[in-house]
Amino acid sequence: MRTRVLVTGANGQLAQSIKRLFEANEDNIFYFFANRTVLDITQQESLKAHFKTNQYDYVVNCAAYTNVDGAEDDPESAFLSNAKAVEYLAKYCNEYEMVLIHISTDYVFDGKKEGAYSETDETNPINVYGASKLKGEKILQQTTSKHYNIRASWLYSPYGKNFLKTMSNLIKNQTALKVVDTQKGSPTSCFELARFIHFIIGHPDIEFGTYHFAAKNYTTWFGFAQYISSFYPDYKSSDLKPVSEFISKAKRPTNSVLAIDKTEKIYPDFMQWEAGVDEIMGVLLES
């Protein structure tokens, strides 16, 4: 019997990464991808009707409001997608005995800790986006026990809008850049996160709860940009300069490094962050 998996937010970078890697798989796992037109998770009646007529074993929630600066001006939309919609999903997952795999963020932390953040560290978001994601986490934990809450950091892929794609395009066009060098984190490939999600689905004995997922080691946004520039040998290194701050509406944590010790015990296949970039840049440069 095949395992049936619903993936929400099908137009987003993580869902597209899951689709690319695992839509055709030999593990008896069938993925159904639903974009907002097919299934709007902020509409409770729509969700209720969908789950009454469609049965799944897992729901992977890739749908989210991810505009960090936009959330400062429109908190209502952020909380609707990142908290209220999670409540609806968790409610029906609990009712129909489906496992909910939910994607959260490093932005639930304030970034003031010296070392890497563990799953048990105190949360304290410093922007609206982080607050909305934290509320979603709390609702998830209160509503269904059969869940995996995966906090990921600095996600990128060949799809959608992300730092790697933006920098790659600017560097390719020989644009002079100033990039902040005072915020640190682990650039994490959506391909790698997709592999972890597929692994979880294939191993139903994994204990439910919160897990951190991030590439090994860390860098700054400037260091990330520097590494991307190495794929463009014609780009002048002098055109890429570090700055101490970047003016934006939303505050960002200065430390977004996630400890992956707990996750490594069940999934030892973590890449160094540079290796993840190598893979995605290979895809981008071929296209």
Summarize the structure.
The chain is built from ten helices and twelve strands. The protein is of the alpha/beta class and 287 residues long.
Poorly predicted regions are: none
Q: Supply the CATH class.
A: Alpha Beta
Which structural category do the helix and sheet elements fall into?
Answer: alpha/beta
CATH architecture verdict: 3-Layer(aba) Sandwich
Strand content: 15-25%
The side-by-side strand order for the widest beta sheet comes to 2-1-3-4-5-10
List the secondary-structure elements in sequence, H or E. Answer: EHEHEHHEHEEHEEEHEEHEHH
Specify Rg, calculated over alpha carbons. Answer: 19 Å
Please tell me the overall pLDDT.
97
The CATH topology annotation reads as Rossmann fold
Q: What is the number of helical segments per DSSP (H or I, 4+ residues)?
A: 10
**Topology, number of strands:** 12
- Termini gap: 37 Å
Outline? globular
Verbal overview:
The protein is of the alpha/beta class and 287 residues long. The protein has a single domain (3-162, 187-218, 257-272), classed as NAD(P)-binding Rossmann-like Domain (Rossmann fold, 3-Layer(aba) Sandwich). 39% of the residues lie in helices and 17% in strands. It has ten helices and twelve strands. It has helices spanning 13-22, 44-53, 68-73, 75-95, 128-143, 163-172, 190-202, 221-229, 261-264, 273-286; strands at residues 3-8, 29-34, 58-61, 99-105, 147-152, 155-156, 177-180, 184-185, 188-189, 209-213, 219-220, 240-243. The strands form four sheets. It has a six-stranded parallel sheet, sandwiched between helices. The longest helix is centred in the N-terminal third of the chain and has 21 residues, at 75-95. The model has no long low-confidence stretch (mean pLDDT 97).
